[in-house]
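TA notes. Do not distribute before section.
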Amino acid sequence: MPGGTMEKRPCALIVIDMINTYDHPDADALLPSARKIVPVVADLIRAAREHDAPVIYVNDNFGQWRSHQGALVDAALDGPHAELVDPVRPDDDALFVVKARHSIFYETPLTYLLWELGVEQVILTGQVTEQCVLYSALDAHIRHLDVTVVRDAVAHIHPELAEAALEMMRRNMGARIIDGAEVTFTADTDRDDDADADAEN
């Protein structure tokens, strides 16, 4: 394929489903974890902007097929948990992809967008660790992207499943599992040797 038209970036911060009304059946179980990660996600967004790294929001459309970025943000800010949305809301430079299913790649233009940007590494944040984050990490891995998952910037519903999901991403997908304080917005493909070996199997 010919080169993309956008300026190349080595990595991108992906913010998954953080524009959220929290009115779904699992919300009560998710909220305590979401509250913990919001400050970390907000810090990562600020750091990415400071380093001119792309910030890409990939967000569920709440089943509203006429919804778009503005409508989704407005609905979340009008909801009962706006305090979890406002610190991580997209700015005018943020990229926004609407999804309908768990994976950020399923039937979305994200693969093409990352190629256009020249992104080699995705840094995953958001919710839910054992669902959308897990499936997105797998889809990124099979697209030959390097995957970093920020453990204190992903929220869970079931703690034990989240821990298992993080280990699966590390062992099976070669993902780097790190804390927000360790994130740098440059391409970093140095991964645990055992994780690399496991991911090849």
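Switch to the second chain here.
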Amino acid sequence: MTHELRFLEHLRQGVASLLHLPLSAIGLYAERETPRDQYALTLHEPYPLVEARLHRAGFVRNLVSSLKFRDYVMPPETSVASWVCYPNGALGSDYQLHLALFVGPDRATTDVYAHWEPSWIRHPIRHYRARDVDAAAGVERTRALFEREGIEYDVVPADERVATGTATAKN
């Protein structure tokens, strides 16, 4: 299922890139920086395998998300996918766990960034204005979820993550 929607992910990325400049002229955005404090973990598998794991864990591809980038990488790097989990279902959750996936420097790993935020379905204005975004809660929930699922991950310092992909702290 995840591979069938990948073309929509590419379309989302293209549309967001085209819309960002005109939207920014009126104070809106279609692209947004992913802060370093949202880094949750690194998985030692390419993102298509990570996406399959996320799908099995109850996440859905987030095709309405703004395009995420990490600008501490030169040149800035854009996420390859956006996924979301609604703890009480899409219509019953006030908050959502949002993950952005980035390809690791060796292309065999995937860096996962996370934040806990108001649901874009139930609270679209608060969500878009990025009110009540909690990076620490997102990171904590993501790590706990991966631990429950028995998925091994590493926590890698930024300078190693974007330079060599070498892990320093195993879970």
